[in-house]
Amino acid sequence: MSICKAAFVLVHGAWHNRWAWHKVAQVLESQGFAALALDLPGAGANAIAPSSLAAQPFDAAAFAAEPSPMAGVTQDERTQAVVALVKEAASLSDGKVVLVGHSAGGMTVSAVAEQVPNLLHAVVYLAGFLVPPGMPLLAMLQHESMSSALSPALFIGDPTEIGATRIHAGSTDPAYRSRLKAAFYGDLSDAEFALAATQLHCDESNAGALAPSEITPGRFGSVPRHYIRCTQDCAIPLSGQDHMIAAVDAAIGGKTTTHTLDSSHSPFLSQPDALSKILIDIAARSQVRQGAEAM
Question: Is residue 1 situated within a structural domain?
Answer without folding.
Answer: no
